[in-house]
Amino acid sequence: MHSNNLPSLTYGFNSSESFLTRIPASAKIVLVLVFALCIALLPSISAQLFLLGYSLILVFLAKIQPRTLIRRLLSLDGFLIFLWVTLPFSGPHGIELALSITIRTHAAVFAFMALLGTTSMGELLYGLRTLAIPQKLVLLLHFTYRYARVFVEETEKIYTSMTLRMFYPSLSLKTLRAYGNLIGMLLVRSILRSERVAHAMELRGFDGSFHFLESPASPKEWDNFRLGALYILLAGCFIL
Questions:
Q1: Closest to 105 (Cα-Cα) out of 127, 128, 84
Q2: Is the pLDDT at 56 greater than 80, yes or no?
């Protein structure tokens, strides 16, 4: 496999050039993991609000497109609405708990958007290998991401062929049997495709590792100082 395959393995945010795009993926992964631990373990509302502001700074530095940000927020807040409808009536601390979950969720989503919006899939895999993540796990993540869309397309093709044969979903035994056949056919096609892909890779000399996973990051002189400032600023959440 060659690096020509990398453009098809991106998250599609198409963020503008920012200093975060020049930072090695391993440094960004560590930053976001530390951030996730802080947002999960710190119970103080003031600390959580600090982390929410910190995540917004990351989004600003990543130059995520506003349309993408709004689309992600709409899908997230649609779920949190049900939380606010039910949780405040569950006990004396219901409102505080709902507020805490809302802040934590938004902060985590913003931080991971900043990471994924400035990191291609190839860079992310390379960063994981730099952090001594097992090669087999990295390969599993790669193929899961690469063929998830193929899996969905196969499902759509099978379901389309079923509807063309006058299939209408209902609660009958016939419908359940049809869905069972769909799942079985999907498994069979997935196995056959995996075998074809494995044979094609072996013929191309695949030895269990991706040699194109080279870090494209090229930090400028002040980028490392900016990254260090982000780590120092993150430590401020422990003061609150």
A1: 84
A2: yes
